[in-house]
Design brief:
The chain is α/β, with parallel strands linked by helices and about 375 residues long. Helix content is about 55%, strand content about 10%. The protein contains 17 helices and 8 strands. Strands 4-5-6-7-1-8 form a 6-stranded mixed sheet, with helices on both faces. It has a two-stranded antiparallel sheet with strand order 2-3. α7 links the parallel β6 and β7. α1 packs parallel to α2, α6 packs parallel to α7 and α16 runs antiparallel to α17. The relative contact order is 0.10. The structure holds zinc ion. The site of zinc ion (ZN) has 9 residues, from α3. Zinc ion (ZN) binds next to α3.
Length: about 375
């Protein structure tokens, strides 16, 4: 592994490496970009380059070896989802008193810490930031630079204020990464103290080429679909669950059928009946809602003459037929009603009923 394994956004990668080369690395960096654009992968690469024992140089710029003991231990956190799940499981098995005091942190090297959002709220909490403050002022133990990666910089208010204090007086030997798909959600006072680098979404064609290598089992038209649905995020495309998406899309189309004049509702009820309570049902419903939004957006693209933006282009003839049957006002109403289903889900309303109500309310 080296920086050359990072796909796309060559200028951002180069900027980061130039700063490493000149030993002018900022104390805090916001790395923003869409889901799956490689924010965490890149931050991990920088953490390795900062602490690599072999310090290789490629193309005249600092790189990392991926083999030394520092690189290897930092890389154990590359599989962040697994490390995160382990940390959550470990906390679940604690006594209640300890559970309350334990915050989720991922640390596979003494000088590099990943701070994921803490469940169930999935926000960074003040105790997590306190943990960072507690050790950030100590010199690195085995590396040259302490690195703190907030993998999804969505803070509770008190946590954000606490982080601000560190950013006002950062130690020489530490770097903080704030990764986010929505940098405007960060406090302006935090943003003004960070350097901001943006990972742009990759063009669909580039993702398709990459998928041809890593997902050869997908047909070309499936790769084209995934590349478009993933909105330019390479990581998201690589791990995309195509079967789950296609099944959600089929259900979403069944939900829109009454709006297209289908009188027989039995198919609709058969579909909504499969959306049950519980965690699994929740994930399935969330995917259905996301897919419905994407279909409504595609219909909007078709109606406004920007068919090249359609993501579900493998079913474009079907979508074009649907677009011919609805007007802009219907699309606006449908999007609003979908928002109501979403907020109803947060209040735990019965899913199948609220999906039925959504579908039948859109009938002509
Ligand atoms: Zn190394």
């Amino acid at each position: 592994m080296s920086f050359s394994d990072f796909h796309g956004n060559a200028e951002v990668v180069r900027t980061l490496r130039e700063m490493l080369a000149h030993e002018r690395f900022p104390h805090a960096v916001i790395l923003s970009g869409p889901q799956g654009s490689g924010k965490f992968t890149l931050a991990q690469m920088v953490a390795k380059a900062m602490n690599c024992l072999e310090r290789p140089v490629t193309d005249g710029l600092p790189d990392f070896c991926g083999r030394c003991s520092n690189c290897v231990r930092i890389a154990e956190a590359d599989a962040l989802e697994e490390r995160f799940a382990e940390a959550v499981d470990a906390r679940e098995s604690m006594r209640d008193a300890d559970k309350r005091e334990t915050r989720i942190l991922v640390q596979t090297h003494p000088d590099v810490m990943v701070i994921p959002p803490d469940p169930p709220q999935m926000l960074v909490k003040v105790d997590q930031v306190r943990h960072v403050i507690h050790e950030i002022y100590y010199k690195p133990v085995e590396g040259r630079e302490r690195v703190y990666i907030f993998s999804d910089a969505d803070f509770m208010k008190e946590a954000a204020n606490s982080l601000l204090k560190v950013l006002e007086e950062p130690p020489e030997f530490a770097t903080i990464f704030l990764l986010t798909d929505n940098p405007t959600a960060l406090l302006p006072t935090i943003r003004s103290r960070c350097m901001h680098l943006r990972l742009a979404p990759l063009p669909a064609e580039e993702i398709e080429q990459y998928l041809a290598q890593v997902r050869p089992e997908w047909k070309p038209r499936e790769r084209a679909l995934v590349a478009r649905v993933c909105g330019g995020g390479l990581g998201r495309a690589r791990s995309f669950d195509l079967a789950a998406y296609l099944s959600a899309r089929q259900d979403a189309l069944a939900l829109l059928a009454p709006a297209m004049g289908t009188k027989d509702h039995s198919a609709l009820f058969r579909v909504t009946d499969t959306y049950r309570a519980g965690a699994e049902g929740k994930a399935k419903t969330e995917q259905l809602i996301r897919t419905l939004y994407a279909l409504l957006e595609d219909l909007l693209f078709l109606k406004s003459g920007t068919a090249e933006l359609v993501r579900n282009h493998d079913i474009q003839p079907e979508l074009a037929k649907m677009a011919g049957q609805v007007d802009f006002a219907w699309l606006v109403t449908a999007t609003q009603r979908l928002g109501e289903v979403e907020s109803g889900m947060r209040r735990n309303l019965l899913r199948s009923l609220s999906l039925d109500a959504f579908a039948t309310s859109l009938e002509p």
